Amino acid sequence: MPLSPLDIHNKEFTRGFRGYAEDEVNDFLEQIIKDYEIILREKKELEEKVRTMTQQMKHYNTLEETLQKSIVVAQEAAEEVRRNSQQEAKLIIKEAEKNADRIINEALAKARKITIEIDGLKKQSKVFRNRFKMLVEAQLDLLNTDDWDHLMEYEIGLTEIQNQARTDQDDFELLTDDIK
């Protein structure tokens, strides 16, 4: 068991013949007591500092562990965000490709439809041209016949000519309606 300042103070020495000077021994013991008290006080202060520092160390270790866990969680969250972003980007690209394919297919279908309509219009215009040509040729043949000479020889009334013109006009309209 360690000595206390009180143990040193209460220690009594036996006297021997021609022993040490009592005042010197007492003064020296007083100095030892003071120094020992200082050392004990410093020891208590150091123990308190060690205890405080140990608690701080535990606190800092806990903080460090928490920070490390937070870093790991943040890294995992960042990785998950990155993965989700990549998946979302892939989905967006896939959707855009689908839309592009749909738009291209619709445009091709419209182009085919327009081509078919153009071909139909070409055929109709050929038919119209041929019929109109036949009509013009028939009219030219009619003009080139000798019947016109005979008409000049005869007097025909104005009403008969108007009736014939109406009939010819009706025939022409029927012919153009067939073409349409």
Automatic annotation (TrEMBL):
UniProt keyword terms in alphabetical order: Cell cycle, Cell division, Coiled coil, Cytoplasm
One GO location term (cellular component): cytoplasm
Record's keyword annotation contains Cell division: yes
Coiled-coil stretches: 29-124
A Pfam family that the UniProt record links to this protein: DivIVA
Main location (coarse class): cytoplasm
Cell cycle in keyword set: yes
GO biological process entries: cell division
InterPro entries cross-referenced by the UniProt entry: DivIVA_domain, DivIVA_fam
Compartments where found: Cytoplasm
Lineage top rank: taxon: Bacteria
Family: Belongs to the DivIVA family.
Protein name (database record): DivIVA domain-containing protein
Organism: Lysinibacillus telephonicus
Lineage: Bacteria, Bacillati, Bacillota, Bacilli, Bacillales
